Amino acid sequence: MILVLSLHTNPLFTRLADAERILVAGAGGGFDVYSGLPLALSLLHQGKEVHLANLSFSALAGLPPDHWVADDLAAVRFDSAVHQRYFPERTLAQWLHRHGYPATVYAFPQIGVRPLRAAYRALVELHDIDAVVLVDGGTDILLRGDEAGLGTPEEDLTSVAALAGLDGIPDRLVVSVGFGVDAHHGVNHVQVLENIAALERDGAYLGAFSIPRATREGAMYLDAVAHAQHHTPEHPSIVNGSIAAAVRGSFGDARFTDRTRDSELFVNPLMSLYFAFDLPGLAARCLYLDRIEDTHLMRQVHSRIAEFRESTVTRPPRRFPH
């Protein structure tokens, strides 16, 4: 059944209107949690209790015992592991602390579906979470498996599978921001649009909205990304750097790090759009989700997806009409 709304209302925020304790979680590791920051700040400014989490690429194993609140679930603070130069979760906690927001960012190690689901369950029970928004910086979370290229789907779809099998949460949602940024990973964005159209037909697409820099949340997001770039100069986020450039109105090959010196960027206004989806509806369209269901290690996820790709006929890539 499709919920009928007025045009001036936002379907994503309508779904979250009755939620009191919301978890905003980065799906794909690295700086993905930053991609959810404008949304998280907006919910905080509405008086919601908001918690942040991220599937982490950081060296979590070196954290002291008092950081671990459950198996595979670490609570990262602004003063955690100050010797580690690359630690997006701590860098975000430092920015949150500086601005007076709750400054704990939860982190999951790179693990398979089964242990990640257990860690999510522990976090949901810890804070009595009644809605989860899974955030992908990029669009590969929207790919079902038979596209010309899948980008880097392992972490994203492990997160989707973990939450798809986690019952008892009234609302589970997905947002994708950074349309076009995955092109250098082989993602065909015409096929992304084709998938969004199919999700609309299924009733799982909740529309799109931008992150304007004139908003309080847009301005604070730009500040948080600049703070992260300053504190992680050797490995800044290309995804969030591109999104931030789009929010500022940059276009084309906008340079903000030497990491992109060998490639040509196409920063554009579509990168600053949040595309929102119902998570169970998105999960139902993934052709290989059942194959990764019983995984315990990320390398198992990788091999299962590779096996699926060897046995499936892929859709040929399509070009945008000129």
UniProtKB/TrEMBL annotation:
It comes from the Bacteria. InterPro entries: DUF1152. This is DUF1152 domain-containing protein. It comes from Streptomyces prasinosporus.
